[in-house]
Amino acid sequence: MSIVTERAPAHEQAFADWVRPHLPAMARLAARLGPPADRDDIVQEALARAWLKRDRYDGRRGTPSAWLLAITADQARKAGGRHWSRRWFAGPAGPTAVAARADDRLDLERALRRLTVRQRLAVDCHYFVGLSIAETAAVMRCSDGTVKSTLADARAKLRTLLEVSE
């Protein structure tokens, strides 16, 4: 009996069709992890790396999304630094509400910067990109339990930093 393994397609058009559904998540993760001006470059570099490594994709080890997002996270890290998006609290409001949101955003940005690199990656993948625990684990190359623990630690630290009471 042979085991059939899903592989990334080798033909250029098939590969493009295979990655297309994952591009929005790749762009969100690149925007969260890398300098905002470099988002498109990070995604392009991740796609180039994925194309070069397409023969290494193994569907038994994770979803295409998790594999592509892990490559995107690596490329964002290589792009250097963390720059936080200023669009988290977008929406129509008056000047007072905008100023309050700006203060909240700055507090959140400061608090997020104080998380460990591992905690920030878990928070970004799970809360900002919307990945499941399993997908976040695949991106982080760890177990589901480790992701849950890391997220719990990050939430606890953020509560302390932001002085949020339950």
Automatic annotation (TrEMBL):
This is RNA polymerase sigma factor SigC. One of its GO terms (biological process) is DNA-templated transcription initiation. Keywords: DNA-binding, Sigma factor, Transcription, Transcription regulation. Gene3D superfamilies: 1.10.1740.10, Winged helix-like DNA-binding domain superfamily/Winged helix DNA-binding domain. Belongs to the sigma-70 factor family. ECF subfamily. Pfam families: Sigma70_r2, Sigma70_r4_2. Residues 106-158 form the RNA polymerase sigma factor 70 region 4 type domain. Residues 19-78 form the RNA polymerase sigma-70 region domain. GO terms for molecular function: DNA binding; sigma factor activity.
